[in-house]
Write a structure and sequence with these properties.
19% helix
Length: 52
């Protein structure tokens, strides 16, 4: 299923900007490493999200 998206061909000015920092997020940021994900998927395809 594809979702339609509305676009504007002209640049638009933002109405609001909210500054955030890593400290604003309560959980630690998890990094993505494609090689690690591929290895874990090959070893245990049903184990997603492989939290450790």
């Amino acid at each position: 299923m594809r979702e339609p998206h509305l676009i504007c061909p002209q640049p638009v000015r933002p109405l609001l900007a909210v500054p955030v920092t890593p400290a604003d997020f309560p959980l630690p940021v998890r990094l993505h490493d494609a090689a690690t994900v591929d290895a874990r998927c090959a070893a245990d395809p049903w184990g997603f999200p492989w939290l450790d």
